[in-house]
Amino acid sequence: MKTFSAKTKDIVKKWVVIDAADQAVGRVASKAAAIIRGKTKPIFTPHMDTGDNVIIINAAQVKLTGNKWGNKIYHHHTGYIGHLRSASARQIMERNPRELLEKAINGMLPKTRLGRTLKNNYRIYEKAEHPHGGQSPEVVSV
After folding, report:
1. Contact 49, 118 (CB under 8 A)
2. Does 7 map to a domain?
3. Does some domain include residue 82?
4. Is 128 domain-assigned?
5. H or E element: which one contains 124?
6. Which residues pair with 24 in a beta bridge?
7. Considering its fold, how many domains does the chain have in total?
8. Where does 1-142 have alpha helices with state H?
9. Does residue 115 lie within any of the structural domains?
10. Three-state SS for 85?
11. Distance from C-alpha of 134 to C-alpha of 122, rounded to nearest angstrom
């Protein structure tokens, strides 16, 4: 049995816009991660970058359900003994609204060299304006 593997000449990258206004973080992130990875295309190949470039607008208007604004805690360790830093979703949103979506999308991408390459395939903007009009992006609903 012969399996399909996409060739670099077959890959056509498009630009896609996702409006995150009044949408749940996880829904937007999972849709964006699938498009970035290329899982929405028939030529999906797991070891190649077959996905599209994603522009996410209105990141400052994203929602969390339930009590997650205060109860959801994000941790990171600085590398020093006892230096575990924690911040709630509300604190992260006040500091940088894009960071909440970045953490969600990065958690859904592979943790390999491919994943590090795919992190360059999306842009997040706090408002509705973006400078990528020249790429004539398509609008995708979540």
Report:
1. yes
2. no
3. no
4. yes
5. strand 122-124
6. 63
7. 1
8. 25-37, 68-71, 89-95, 97-108, 113-118
9. yes
10. strand
11. 16
